[in-house]
Amino acid sequence: MASTTARTGTSQSLERGLAILSSYHADRPLIGVSELSRELDLSRSTAHRYVTTLAQLGYLQQDAVSKRYRLGPKVLDLGFSALSAMDLLEIAAPHLRKLSDDTQRTVNLAILEGTDVVYVERYRASRPGQQEIDLNLHVGARLPAYCTAMGKAILAFLPEDRLAKLIRRIDFEERGPNTITDATAFREELSRIRETALAVNDEELAYGLRSIAAPVLSHTGEPVAALNLAVHRTMASMDELLAHYGPRVTEAAGAISESLGHRP
């Protein structure tokens, strides 16, 4: 049982374990047991016991040559989890704002909830015609994932087991003139998206609405959100939309993903 200090009720064992982990930093990646025992005022046997436990749990890793210890993969996982737990909107906001300002187009960010996407941020452009594609959408609005660019961008990068369960739950109803209503064709569409990392919505949700979207990925490579850029069909053909704005959309999504710890 971990020892505790009666005065504060805190765990001395936990404090010592964290103190050991906190001893490591960029210019000091390897530390031996003797060094730790001296610096933390622990007996060598006590320091060795804590280090051994942390190594068994994956928080430390012994160097084969020097026999000293470095931080292990579990610490990296904690760091990435902390990054991913940061407010997604705080991280994404400057990228979304810049994309909207640079293109003068409406830009959105959404997450997946069940078989729907939920809008969590919007940057509306003021240029003429953009209001025609708003569809009364707002932060908190929900749309079926299968007929939106953002939904498809997220679904395309889900693990296969989770994707298969979601596809079985989707009712492929026609929403726009080009809605994909066949599960097999939908899977083929997701395969294309995985190759290009860019999803399209060419009047699949509603008449006149076109958009392109890219996934926002975590450090594990799984999608946590997607961002899109939307226009009315009178503003650009699908080819023009992809050529002019595709690279900017993928660049913005990539920058947000990188801030969340994703490395291609």
Judged by helices, strands and strand pairing, the structural class is alpha+beta
Cα Rg? 24 Å
Largest beta-sheet details: 6 strands, antiparallel
Total beta strands: 8
Shape: elongated
Distance from first to last alpha carbon: 43 Å
Helix share of residues?
40-55%
Number of helices: 9
Strand content: 15-25%
Mean pLDDT: 87
- SSE series: HHHEEHHEEEHHHEEEH
Q: How do the strands of the widest beta sheet line up side by side?
A: 5-4-3-8-7-6
Low-confidence segments, given as residue ranges, are 1-7
Fold and architecture overview:
- This protein is α+β, with helices and mostly antiparallel strands and 264 residues long.
- It contains nine helices and eight strands.
- The strands form two sheets. Strands 5-4-3-8-7-6 form a six-stranded antiparallel β-sheet, sandwiched between helices. The chain has a two-stranded antiparallel ribbon with strand order 1-2.
- The longest helix is centred in the last third of the chain and has 22 residues, at 238-259.
Write a brief structural summary.
The protein has helices at residues 12-22, 33-39, 44-56, 73-85, 88-103, 149-155, 160-169, 183-196, 238-259, and strands spanning 60-62, 69-71, 106-113, 116-123, 142-144, 199-202, 209-217, 223-232. With 264 residues, the chain is of the alpha+beta class.
Question: Which key features would you list for this structure?
Answer:
9 helices, alpha+beta, two-stranded antiparallel sheet, disordered N terminus, 43% helix, 8 strands, 264 residues, six-stranded antiparallel beta sheet
